Amino acid sequence: MADTPPRQPSRIDQLVELITAQITGGLLKTGERLASVRAAAGDHGVSKNTMAEVYDRLVAAGLLESRPGSGFYVTGGNRRPLPRQNPDVEAAVDVVSLLREQLDQHYEVRPGDGRPPQAWMEGSEIGRFFGRFKWPKGEAIDHGYGSSWGFLPLRERIAMLLAERGIKAGVGQVLLTYGANHGLDLIIRHHLEPGDTVFVDDPGYYPLFGKLTLAKVRIIGIRRGPEGPDLEDLAAKLAHHRPKLFFTQSQGHNPTGHGLTMGTAYGLLQAAERHGFQLVEDDAFADVMPASAPRLAALDQLNRVLYVGTFSKTFSASLRSGYVAASTPVAAALQGIKMLTVVATSDYVERFIYNFISDGHYVRHLRRLRARVGEAATTAAGALSEMGLDVATPAHAGFYLWVGLPAGTDELALARAAAERSIFLAPGQVFAPDRAPRAPAIRVNVAHAADPRFLAFMREVAAGGRG
């Protein structure tokens, strides 16, 4: 894999850094008026729009004050405190802190990222299809909202994809969403009330923890192992708790990359039947996993299982589209909530995805993507294992590896040390529902694991250095 060139700071970034240093270093005094936007743009050889953006950023940082009709003045370098948020929102945002970085992307090296790189998507069939896509001749485009269920032909196509995984679902059991997270939102709204108890994978999908925190429900982690949720830990927790839902990922588990064995799947369904809870199966990476891999929905046929899928992980994160498959009554209830909250999903996006699939492009894209993931996972696991690190290798290659760190490693200190080198790490502690320290580990995105800067950093870690 070719090395990713370091991201060069923009001219705006450079000027913000320069003026910030002048203020904090005392070269620009409190109350001093800065040159006008026009004059400063001339001094620095940039456009007025660029200079206006620099000043706006410094105002937002609390370093400058804008006085209409007069200009920009130094405030003294006292950064403005952020307004205090609702405590429930603060807790949720704390849980999903990694997500903010994945959206803003300040770091050059990104092994902690949760998504495959965009080049893996739009440099393949997707980019070519975007460039020359036209609506099929004679296809009518409805410029209204469209059905709140979603574009019917795509729902029919998804039902066919589910059948390949052994899941029988009629079109009335498939509801289109704005990706997997939207599907999880709808399920939480429908099934849970404040004070309810839910089970989740531990370690598990941290954005889900934020959603559940906002819903004010009690979150109990079930230890996750190479074969899926630990059935002994599940039995022990069921002796003391009565969950309404158990959220889990069967294949390509985020963050460990592991799958689910048939025996564990059977045990989970038995426990759900005995104790009266439902299972929410998040299968975000289904399209890069074998269709024959064990899935709860295939064993249960959507009786106690709600099945969540998405195209965002394997198609494009920019095309927000996913689905929930459930029993007919539950699907109808979720459709009602969707209609009340967002009215409908994008008919344009859903038609685009449908045409991409039906024209055969998606099959070719997935063939290349699976090969790329497999090669990257093998290379990453080999390189990290050679350092003496404990690498949990999944049965089926996916986007993630769970890498154990030397005993006593402070994950958060390690992440800070990596950040100083512009390396973005995902500490294992973030994926714990209670955020309590566990055996030190990090989640590694295999797509970014071959970067020599990351590998050099990890060699220092493996050798007992601080990074």
In brief:
The chain is of the alpha/beta class. It contains 18 helices and 14 strands. The strands form 3 sheets. Strands 3-10-9-8-7-4-5-6 form an 8-stranded mixed beta sheet, sandwiched between helices.
What are the SSEs and their pairings?
Elements: H1 11-24, H2 37-44, H3 48-60, E1 64-67, E2 71-74, H4 87-95, H5 97-104, H6 118-122, H7 125-132, H8 152-164, E3 174-177, H9 179-191, E4 197-202, H10 206-214, E5 218-225, E6 228-229, H11 231-238, E7 245-248, H12 262-275, E8 278-282, H13 296-300, E9 305-310, E10 322-325, H14 328-341, H15 347-358, H16 361-386, E11 390-392, E12 400-404, H17 411-419, E13 426-427, E14 441-445, H18 452-462
Parallel strand pairs: 4-5, 4-7, 7-8, 8-9
Antiparallel strand pairs: 1-2, 3-10, 5-6, 9-10, 11-12, 12-14, 13-14
Helix pairs in contact: 1-3, 2-3, 4-10, 9-10, 9-14, 11-12
Helix content class? 40-55%
Strand percent estimate: 5-15%
Return residue spans where pLDDT drops below 50 for at least 5 consecutive residues: 1-6, 79-97
* Gap between N and C termini: 24 Å
Helix-strand makeup class: alpha/beta
Mean pLDDT: 85
Can you walk through the features of this model?
- The protein is α/β, with parallel strands linked by helices and 467 residues long.
- It is 43% helix and 13% strand.
- It is built from 18 helices and 14 strands.
- The chain has helices spanning 11-24, 37-44, 48-60, 87-95, 97-104, 118-122, 125-132, 152-164, 179-191, 206-214, 231-238, 262-275, 296-300, 328-341, 347-358, 361-386, 411-419, 452-462; strands spanning 64-67, 71-74, 174-177, 197-202, 218-225, 228-229, 245-248, 278-282, 305-310, 322-325, 390-392, 400-404, 426-427, 441-445.
- The protein has an eight-stranded mixed β-sheet with strand order 3-10-9-8-7-4-5-6, with helices on both faces. A four-stranded antiparallel β-sheet has the order 11-12-14-13, covered by helices on one side.
- Helix 12 links the parallel strand 7 and strand 8 (278-282).
- Helix 1 (11-24) crosses helix 3, helix 2 (37-44) packs across helix 3 and helix 9 (179-191) packs parallel to helix 10.
- It is globular and about 70 Å long.
- The two termini are 24 Å apart.
